[in-house]
Design brief:
Layout lengths: L1 E5 L3 H12 L4 E5 L2 H10 L4 E4 L8 H8 L9 E5 L5 H9 L4 E4 L4 H11 L3
Parallel strand pairs: 1-2, 1-3, 3-4, 4-5
Helix pairs in contact: 2-3
């Protein structure tokens, strides 16, 4: 199993990375949007946790770039501190995002995501 976290907040990426690594799940964290896009395009991940509000090159920019590709086959879960209208969340789901989670994210929610997308 392999997880990618794309979030500009290093504290968030470290905590989430530690959570997955406790279960011996390989976890890569990236704190830059462009680097995150490159990782997604060049590697296969079982789960991608993507923040929308990344400065300079946002998670939305990443999704717009990936929209031209088949992202339905990627388990992309958005986790963000931004507040979304239901219509905005629906747009993400329509292009292939699996779900939208608001931060702060609980360990219980992370466990549910792990169980849903990383079934062994």
């Amino acid at each position: 199993m392999k997880v990618l976290i794309v979030d500009d907040n290093e504290s968030v990426t470290e905590v989430v990375k530690d959570f997955f690594e406790l279960d011996n799940i390989e976890c890569i964290s990236v704190n830059n949007g462009r680097e995150g896009l490159t990782e997604i395009q060049n590697n296969n991940y079982d789960l991608i946790l993507l923040d929308i509000a990344i400065p300079e090159y946002s998670g939305l920019d990443i999704l717009n770039e990936l929209k031209r590709q088949c992202i339905e086959n990627k388990n992309i879960v958005i986790f963000t501190a931004s507040v979304f209208k239901d219509e905005d969340a629906e747009k993400f789901l329509e292009i292939g995002v699996k779900e939208v989670c608001l931060k702060p994210i609980s360990l219980e929610k992370l466990e549910a995501i792990k169980q849903e997308y990383l079934r062994k």
